Amino acid sequence: MAQHGSGTGPGAAPTASAGAARVTAAPRSRRRRTAVIVAAAVLVVAAAAVLVTKVGGGRRGAASTIPLPAGSGAAAVAITPDGATAYVADEGIDTVTPIRVATGRPGPAIPVGSSPDAIAVTPGGTMAYVVNYGSGTVTPIRVATGKPGAPIRAGHQPGAIAISPDGATAYVADASYGHPDVTPIDLATGQPGRPIRVGGLPLAIAITADGRTAYVVSGPASGAGWVTPIDLATGRPGHRIGGDFTRPESIAITPDGKTAYVVDQDGQAVVPVDLARRVPGQPIPVPGLPADIAIAPDGATAYVPDGVRHVIPVDLATRTAGRPIAAGQAPVAIAVTPDGAAAYVADQVRDTVTVLRLKRR
User: Chain-wide mean pLDDT for the chain?
Assistant: First the structure.
């Protein structure tokens, strides 16, 4: 997952400008929201000028819009493995909205903790886990009933989550300079384990399909960010993977486990990282304020919300950005359905989800 004027402490307001922004301490979606709102106001004319994908018909990018509760401030999206339900973290109103994919209808909002900032679903599709930045907790939700369980303590300001492929453990990144850790949670017992120190401001996390390694993106207090690999068998962090990550926001790993792609918002780029050699490659330029990334199940294309009205498709074979796809006003988070047919894109300003068709039918 991804996720908002100047400051240096938790909750301080970051400054943002078109194409450049710096944040020193805040949760991912809060930083996104301020940056996106400012950018949307400044770049609205430019965004309209580069709108090149038609809405409607059978082409990739044909869209529909699903309303969310007023004030949702949608921060994250996750879809169940069977493709039946999409869950949206409503950061602004402390709920999660389930959406039935077959009908496009939202269900009753599910109460969670304060400022839900990220969400993940277990591989078996029975449980969703919601990260509450404001509460320092994770709320479990039973998918079959939509009922939330008792919150689980997970650090101080958690902002991202990933679940191991065997469904046994959730790993929660604590977006706090004072406690720059990843906390493992035993999902059978709901008990948190010993935090794993990664440093900086941990903002995003992804796990390889074989379940051996987690990769954590950290933003710096100053200078460049980095990616920390964690051996999940031992819980030990490895050597940092450096790169020109001026403001890393999100990370996704290809299905074959060979490459990670890191979204660098300030750099207006997606940076590939060779996971065998653990070295970054040439950044792929993308416009706007890129905020999140999702890779299609076939591993051919990555989709990047640009924060200002579009999703940018990136061809991973050629490592080039394609034509922008219209996606609301302030798209900040994205999830692709398991069949690769559609993407669900959260709009933090309009309080909507835009559903994009990703292939012909």
Answer: 85
Report whether 24 contacts 12 (CB < 8 A). yes
Average pLDDT over residues 213-220: 93
Domains in the chain: ranges and CATH: 15-357 (2.130.10.10)
pLDDT single digits (tens) 231-246: 999 999 999 998 778 8
**Confidence check: pLDDT of 220 > 80:** no
Single pTM value for the model = 0.86
Residues 25-47 have a mean pLDDT of 42
